[in-house]
Design goal:
It is built from three helices and no strands. It is mainly α and about 80 residues long.
């Protein structure tokens, strides 16, 4: 699935931000070095796919009560210092 150019740019920007956040975190950096010292490479892969293929992502109908991210998702993003505004 090809991403629209604006979404591709956002995903790329998110990837850069995640890598920076991981590199700035001492614990994450130490873990990465330990893994690399064992002879393994690391790769961060982001995938953007429609959250609900049956629903148009540009539809402004807010009747869906389900939040876009679970509590676990929000905790993970907060641990990487990702702000959700």
């Amino acid at each position: 699935m090809d991403l629209p150019e604006h979404l591709h740019h956002l995903v790329s920007e998110l990837g850069d931000s995640l890598l920076k956040a991981l590199a700035d975190d001492d614990h994450c950096r130490d873990l990465a070095f330990q893994i690399q010292a064992k002879g393994y490479g690391l790769m961060l892969i982001l995938e953007a796919s429609p959250a609900n293929p049956a629903r148009d992502p540009f539809d402004s109908d807010d009747s869906d009560p389900q939040p876009p991210f679970s509590e676990d998702d929000m905790r993970l993003m907060k641990s990487f210092k990702i702000k959700m505004d």
